[in-house]
From TrEMBL:
<dbReference type="Pfam" id="PF00072">
    <property type="entry name" value="Response_reg"/>
</dbReference>
<dbReference type="GO" id="GO:0005829">
    <property type="term" value="C:cytosol"/>
</dbReference>
<feature type="modified residue" description="4-aspartylphosphate">
    <location>
        <position position="95"/>
    </location>
</feature>
<dbReference type="InterPro" id="IPR011006">
    <property type="entry name" value="CheY-like_superfamily"/>
</dbReference>
<dbReference type="GO" id="GO:0000976">
    <property type="term" value="F:transcription cis-regulatory region binding"/>
</dbReference>
<dbReference type="GO" id="GO:0032993">
    <property type="term" value="C:protein-DNA complex"/>
</dbReference>
<keyword id="KW-0804">Transcription</keyword>
<keyword id="KW-0238">DNA-binding</keyword>
<protein>
    <recommendedName>
        <fullName>Response regulatory domain-containing protein</fullName>
    </recommendedName>
</protein>
<keyword id="KW-0902">Two-component regulatory system</keyword>
<dbReference type="GO" id="GO:0006355">
    <property type="term" value="P:regulation of DNA-templated transcription"/>
</dbReference>
<dbReference type="InterPro" id="IPR039420">
    <property type="entry name" value="WalR-like"/>
</dbReference>
<keyword id="KW-0805">Transcription regulation</keyword>
<dbReference type="InterPro" id="IPR001789">
    <property type="entry name" value="Sig_transdc_resp-reg_receiver"/>
</dbReference>
<dbReference type="GO" id="GO:0000156">
    <property type="term" value="F:phosphorelay response regulator activity"/>
</dbReference>
<keyword id="KW-0597">Phosphoprotein</keyword>
<feature type="domain" description="Response regulatory">
    <location>
        <begin position="46"/>
        <end position="163"/>
    </location>
</feature>
Length: 168
């Protein structure tokens, strides 16, 4: 199916390797190498999934890797910050309701002040998210909300749309 392994190397140059201290909680998933026809170029896009529910994180990772994305999965705000400092993904799927001292809202604020990465926010608390998105005046291209619970096909469609039209 797909490979899933804990990352155990130090910070890299543009790759998704992460700090050794957090290696047991950060997972990188990708499909085995697929043949790319000659004469075509394809950039494999990287997605950071920040989700504290292990079952949901696994489902999200599996569907995204099955469709050719490299997925880094973390389960807390602290690990999200570590992953983001190591390598900038093409998109972040971010649960706002995270355990620990750094919540999803803080991760989102940090992302918005340091990078222009598309973020797909997932949470069951829809009112606050909608107000935040409206107040920011951002396009749904760079900041969107997917209310929980949601079908995995909806997640996949939203991710594809955001990556297809997001500024590079």
């Amino acid at each position: 199916m797909h490979e899933q392994e804990a990352v155990d190397t130090g910070p890299g140059n543009g790759d998704m390797s992460l700090l050794q201290g957090a290696a047991h909680e950060i997972h990188v998933s990708q499909h085995p190498t697929q043949e790319i026809p000659e004469g075509t170029s394809r950039t494999i896009q990287r997605i950071l999934v920040v989700e504290d529910d292990p079952t949901l994180a696994t489902l999200e990772s599996e569907i995204l890797t099955a469709h050719g994305y490299i997925v880094v999965t973390v389960h807390s705000g602290e690990l999200a910050i570590t992953a983001l400092r190591s390598a900038i993904p093409d998109l972040v799927v971010l649960d706002l309701e995270l355990p620990g001292s750094i919540k999803g809202w803080e991760v989102l604020q940090m992302l918005r002040t340091t990078a222009s990465i598309p973020v797909l926010v997932t949470t069951s608390a829809t009112t606050a998210v909608r107000q935040y998105i409206r107040s920011r005046g951002e396009s749904r291209i760079t900041l969107d909300h997917l209310p929980k619970p949601y079908p995995m096909q909806t997640l996949l469609k939203r991710v594809k749309r955001m990556l297809m039209i997001a500024p590079q």
